[in-house]
Structure formats: C-alpha cells, structure tokens
C-alpha cells in the first residue's frame, strides 16, 4: 500500500480530507483503488492481485468476489485517510472484453473468462468464416473478443446462456451492482467486435452470429448511472445514498484522457502488460488497418479513437530472469542496436502462432517491439491524427533506457508522465467531473527523453526492412 501521507485511522482529526472521489482500475493482473481529493491530488492508493478462481484449469473471475475485494479496499482507504464524509462519487475502468451473464437481480450466473483465455479460438474462426471481416466494428474477431466468448458460451454452457437475463461487462459490473442499474459503457461495447464504432450502434448481424446475450443500455464514459444502493460501503459509511456511480469504460482510453488533462493533444504510448498507442481523429471512413483498431473516443466525444496494441510484456517475459531489469533500469549499457537478423527473428516469434525460433538477445526483442510500435504510430498518423507529441505512461515508462531507445526508433523525443496509477487517477477525475464541479487542473511531473543521434540513421534504415518483413509475414498468415 502507498499512502500519500502517513495518517493513522482517526476520523476525528481536524485535517481529514473531504470531497473525496474514488477511481477503480480492474486490470488483467491487478485491481487498483485510488482516492482523490477536490484538488486532483491522490491521497491514498492500493493495488492487489485480481481475485481469481480456476475454471477448467484456467484462471477466471467471480464478479461478486471482485466486488467484495473492491469494497474492502475502498473501506480501508477511506478509513486510512481519516475522512468523515462519504465518498462523493465512484467510477470504474478496466479490461475491455471480459463479462458475465447475470440473472434479473444482476447476480452472476457464471464466471468471467479473461480476455487472454484462448478457449474461444475455434469459435472465433467460425465467426470469421461466417461473417468475414466487418470494418465497421473497428476490431477484428479473435479469441479475445466478447463475440467469440458469447459463441463459446452458447456452445459449451447452453443452460447458462438460456437463463441469462443480461450480459454485463466485468468492468461495469461493480457500479451496476452497487447501483442495481445495468448498463454498458460505450468503450467496452466497442471491444465486443459487434459494435459499429463509426455510427455508434450495435451491428445486428454480428450479434446474431455470435449468439450475443441480451444487452443493457449503452452509455458514454462519464455518465452518472445511479447512486450506491447496496453493499458494505453503506454499512461502513464510506458511501451513502448520494454517492454517485459513474461509467468509466475501457482502461486505455481512460488513461489517455488523464494524460490529455496535462496536454490536450498528445499520442499516448501506454507501456504496461500490453503496449497500446492511443490518439483520436475528428473523422474517419470505415477501414481496416493491420496495426490499429478503431473505437469511440474516451469520453464519448465525436470522432474516432485509434488504438494500436502489441503484447509487449509477453514478448520480453523469457528475459525476466536474465537481464531484463538491469537493461530497463539502465544499470547495464544497452550497446549498439541489435543485428536485423535477430530483430526479424524476434518479431517472427512474437507474431507467428505456434513454435518459431526466438533469439536469445534481449536487445533484439526490445528493438523488434519498438519497431512494431513505430508501425502503430505511423498507422495512427496515416488515419488522420496530427503529429502530436508522444507521451509514455505505465510501469515500463519508468525506464529512461527503454524510452531513449524508443525515441531513437521513433525519431522524436518521448515524454514520460510520472504517475504510478494514471488509469485509476484518470477514472477518479471522470467521477469528479460528473459531480458538475469546476475541474481542478491536473499537475504531474513530465520528463522528456531525447533520441540517441548516433542510432537514428541506422534505425531509420532498419525500419524499412522491418516493416517489409512484417508485411510479408502478415501476407503469409492470411494466405
């Protein structure tokens, strides 16, 4: 646990904070709770592992157990700050595709299967064969999408599907449960692969093909969906019947919205479990792009959001015990850029399903991941986003060594936002906005990392070869 100040649990303290709001980030690995005051200052934050159970030998999530975990964290934080008044508002952001079938009383009928669970691969293939690619959905159908999980549920657990009153996104579930009001945040609807992100409506043919369960109303992030009506938050005084519950939605757009409070027009380079690049364009005709998915903007504004995703952490996982930390911390000199033969082998290993030859060189894998990030950046700009400055966030953005390498590949400086829990902070500020109060300016330190001039020419030449290789690899996979 990290406390902004070391306060004992004493509600009678004269310096207790008031006007607190709560932001919750339900991630793939951890859940985080952040309490923020009226000045946009974080006063308490904590992270715990996502509560998991085992389902058919694989991790899954009990949605009510998640709610209990979050309630305990919120109560702990609210008590630790010495607050007297209940929280003013709560908003939840998190993973995009996970969800649960629920009964009419909103009780889950099954576990939430994580987006990274591959059990729906066959169903994804069936869907693609049946409906082809629908560019209006903004994302391709694969095993991670809710559409594939719906089809899997219909085929493997038909009794659960028949009993379901509604489907709720896991990220929305806590707020829906506390308010006893079902809803789906629009940025989460966009992750199902059945939502038209250009016309902002469900695609009936894709819902039918995937066997989608009945769905609640869709709302923009930032919409007040109700107030706290049930749960232990009421009993402990951390919330009352006036505590507002606010739709938060998909985590990456929420983090980007927080960065854009620091500087309004930036390309956000999120370096966590996945590397996700995010920007928005004013208008875009429906199109497919091999490097970028399309969605609705973070807070439901007009235009189209562009999201490029690469499984960054997974591509480096095998080096965790052999030098990764030392490399990223700058404790060891990075040396010269890796030979292109190793870089191409590394991206082949990351993108090609099944066994392939992976290089033993850490630098080659980092170079390959960063070249791919440049492909994402270039596609976002080709979609109409201006050449906005790049702001990096997330745990890996603490590494100046990594950011200097990325700046050298990108050919431009990279800024790093110094905030450990930017996603939870971002959704807390969305909750604060829903109260209608004047927005407090967000202030965080930002450091700027410059490229290595001696690497730039080599990286520029190598990038041309890299992109050609990736295009050929994609062509082979499509054949």
Under the CATH scheme, which class of the largest domain?
Answer: Alpha Beta
Sheet having the most strands: 7 strands, mixed
Stretches with pLDDT under 50, minimum 5 residues = 1-14
Q: End-to-end span in angstroms?
A: 50 Å
Shape label: globular
What is the CATH superfamily of the largest domain? ATPase, nucleotide binding domain
Tell me the number of helical segments per DSSP (H or I, 4 or more residues long).
16
Strand order of the largest sheet: 1-4-3-2-7-15-14
Radius of gyration: 22 Å
How many domain modules? 2
Protein name: Xylulokinase
Family: Belongs to the FGGY kinase family.
Organism: Caballeronia ptereochthonis
GO molecular function: kinase activity; phosphotransferase activity, alcohol group as acceptor
Structure description:
There is one protein chain. This protein has 479 residues and is an alpha+beta fold. It folds into two domains: 2-7 and 16-251, ATPase, nucleotide binding domain (Nucleotidyltransferase, domain 5), CATH 3.30.420.40; 263-478, Nucleotidyltransferase, domain 5 (2-Layer Sandwich). It contains 16 helices and 22 strands. The strands form six sheets. The chain has a seven-stranded mixed sheet. Strands 18-19-17-16-20-21-22 form a seven-stranded mixed sheet. Strand 18 and strand 19 form a beta hairpin. Helix 2 packs across helix 3 (146-156). The longest helix has 26 residues, at 453-478. Mean pLDDT is 90; it is low at 1-14.
């Amino acid at each position: 646990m990290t406390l902004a100040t070391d306060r004992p649990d004493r509600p009678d303290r004269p310096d207790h904070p008031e006007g607190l709001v709560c932001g919750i980030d339900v991630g793939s690995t951890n859940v985080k709770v952040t309490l923020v005051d009226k000045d946009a200052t974080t006063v308490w934050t904590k992270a715990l592992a996502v509560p998991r159970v085992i389902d058919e030998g694989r991790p899954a999530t009990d949605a009510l157990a998640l709610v209990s975990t979050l309630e305990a964290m919120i109560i702990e934080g609210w008590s630790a700050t010495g607050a007297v008044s209940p929280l003013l508002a709560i908003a939840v952001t998190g993973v995009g595709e996970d969800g649960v079938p629920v009964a009419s009383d909103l009780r889950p009928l099954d576990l939430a299967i994580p987006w990274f669970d591959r059990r729906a691969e066959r169903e994804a293939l069936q869907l693609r064969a049946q409906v082809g690619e629908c560019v209006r959905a903004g994302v391709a159908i694969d095993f991670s999408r809710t559409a594939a999980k719906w089809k899997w549920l219909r085929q493997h657990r038909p009794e659960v599907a028949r009993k379901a009153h509604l489907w709720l996104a896991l990220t929305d579930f806590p707020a829906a449960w506390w308010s006893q009001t079902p809803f789906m945040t629009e940025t989460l609807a966009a992750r199902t692969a059945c939502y038209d992100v250009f016309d902002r409506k469900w695609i009936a043919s894709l819902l039918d093909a995937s066997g989608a369960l009945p769905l609640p109303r869709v709302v923009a992030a930032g919409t007040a969906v109700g107030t706290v009506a049930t749960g232990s938050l009421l009993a402990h005084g951390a919330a009352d019947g006036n505590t507002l519950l606010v739709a938060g939605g998909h985590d990456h757009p929420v983090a980007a919205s927080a960065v854009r409070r620091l500087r309004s027009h930036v390309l956000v380079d999120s370096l966590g479990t996945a590397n996700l690049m995010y920007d928005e364009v004013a208008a875009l005709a429906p199109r497919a792009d091999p490097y970028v998915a399309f969605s609705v903007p973070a807070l439901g504004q007009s235009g189209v959001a562009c999201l490029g995703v690469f499984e960054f952490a997974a591509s480096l996982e095998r080096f965790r015990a052999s030098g990764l930390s030392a490399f990223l911390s700058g404790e060891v000199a990075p040396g010269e850029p890796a030979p292109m033969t190793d870089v191409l082998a590394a991206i082949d290993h990351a993108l090609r399903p099944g066994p392939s030859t992976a290089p033993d060189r850490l630098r080659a894998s980092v170079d390959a991941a960063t070249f791919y990030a440049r492909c994402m950046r270039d596609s976002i700009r080709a979609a109409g986003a201006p050449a906005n400055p790049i702001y990096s966030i997330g745990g890996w953005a603490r590494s100046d060594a990594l950011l200097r390498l990325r700046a050298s590949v990108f050919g431009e400086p990279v800024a790093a936002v110094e905030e450990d829990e930017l996603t939870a902070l971002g959704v807390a500020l969305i909750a604060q906005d829903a109260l209608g109060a004047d927005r407090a300016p967000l202030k965080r330190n930002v450091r700027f990392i410059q490229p290595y001039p001696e690497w730039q020419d080599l990286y520029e030449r190598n990038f041309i070869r890299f992109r050609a290789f990736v295009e050929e690899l994609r062509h082979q996979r499509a054949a």
